[in-house]
Design goal:
Distance between the termini: 30 Å
CATH topology: Growth Hormone, Chain: A
CATH class: Mainly Alpha
Shape: globular
Oligomer: single chain
Structural class: mainly alpha
């Protein structure tokens, strides 16, 4: 929901287009350093309490963000102070809300075999995609009826309810993987491990790509189609919805039928993503922009499970939390740098400049996945036969 309302909202608040990315930059920076800690904490304390804590912090962050926006719209806050408080409200999510993702990935890893893990982690990604598919559509309808701030408050309520549901109902019989306190920086040492480093390098590149594309799509759509305010939110929401539905279809229908290991998924994902970005550059209409978003969703649906699944199967059971923390950290790391490539170039050069850089980056990522010795020597992951009786 926030992705759909942020671009028109910053313009209503009198902030620059580049501020869309910078508001998220501090949160992303905190996310990078906090995620490995929370991954290790889930090894020590169990997955469920860490997941619930992260969701609760997300609820607090969104409530604070919505409150600051209301102060800005009423004129109580403006300019640099408004910008700073928006960054700080979002920073709560980066520092503590980052606990949920590594703990959730480790929760799945605890309950799957190495052969099942890529497919099951793809299912976790599909759950995010499902929310991304319906969230923007719901957001557009609510924003049109109640204003741009209302969806932010609704997200806070939903996150709080999710935190309570996890704490109260999620089963966890698996004991913590580590006994006693251990230095969380041990998880950072895994970053240089040859088993993981290739996947993390690719994941960082994918995060930069995602950060740039997410940051500028709303602005790009409003400028290309000459739309503002609630109409801009509706058109942006349509694009994000198509992207998420394509990602969801890839995860649920395409990926289980592919006999492809992590490296293959990373190569093909990069290629399809590059095509989707090229289509966005030349898109003259909303229909063409939706086609671009569908291709980008397909590309992310292949590439993201490739590097997350590969990283998970590369480590031992007692390292799952730490590895998941590193995966989540690189997923957020790109958003620290994407404002420079996305917002600044969009505002000061041309609206297409960030997209051309993304295409070059995707070409480099595909070449890396193709040529990297660490990834080439990784064993392919065979997905188990589909059993209709389990659904």
């Amino acid at each position: 929901m926030l992705l759909a309302v942020a671009p028109p909202l910053v313009r209503q608040l009198g902030l620059s287009d580049a501020s869309v990315g910078w508001i998220f930059a501090l949160s992303a920076l905190l996310w990078v350093f906090a995620s490995p800690y929370w991954g290790r904490a889930s090894d020590q304390r169990g997955r469920k309490p860490v997941i619930a804590l992260g969701l609760a912090a997300y609820a607090v962050s969104m409530a604070a963000f919505g409150g600051v926006v209301m102060l800005g719209l009423s004129g109580v806050l403006s300019g640099a102070w408004l910008f700073a408080w928006l960054m700080l409200a979002r920073a709560i999510f980066g520092a503590v809300g980052s606990a949920s993702s590594p703990a959730a990935q480790a929760y799945v890893a605890d309950r799957t075999s190495r052969l099942e893990r890529t497919e099951q982690l793809a299912g976790l990604t599909a759950a995010f995609a499902l929310g991304q598919a319906f969230g923007p559509a719901i957001c557009a309808a609510l924003a049109a009826r109640f204003g741009l701030v209302f969806p932010i408050g609704l997200v806070a309520v939903l996150a709080g309810a999710a935190a309570f549901a996890i704490w109260r109902f999620l089963p966890e019989t698996t004991p913590p993987k580590l006994d006693g306190a251990r230095d969380w920086r041990e998880s950072l040492r895994l970053a240089g491990d040859q088993r993981l480093s290739g996947y993390l390098i690719f994941g960082f590149g994918l995060s930069v790509v995602a950060g740039v594309l997410v940051q500028i799509f709303g602005l790009f759509t409003m400028d290309r189609l000459n739309a503002q305010g609630e109409q801009g939110a509706e058109l942006t929401a349509a694009g994000f919805m198509v992207n998420a539905l394509a990602l969801l279809a890839t995860q649920m229908a395409v990926l289980p039928r592919l006999k492809m290991g992590p490296r293959g998924l990373m190569i093909w994902g990069s290629a399809v993503l590059a095509v989707g970005v090229a289509v966005q550059i030349i898109a003259p209409s909303l229909g063409a922009l939706l086609v671009a978003q569908a291709l980008q969703g397909l590309g992310f649906g292949l590439a993201r499970p490739g590097f997350t699944g590969g990283a998970s199967v590369a480590v031992q059971p007692h390292e799952q939390g730490a590895a998941a923390g590193l995966v989540v950290a690189v997923n957020g790391a790109g958003f620290v740098f994407s404002p420079l490539i996305g917002g600044v170039l969009y505002e000061r050069v041309t609206m297409d400049a960030p997209l051309y850089i993304v295409i070059v980056l995707l070409a480099a990522m595909g070449a890396f996945a193709w040529r990297s010795r660490r990834l080439r020597h990784a064993a392919p992951i065979e997905t188990p036969p589909h059993d209709p009786s389990t659904h």
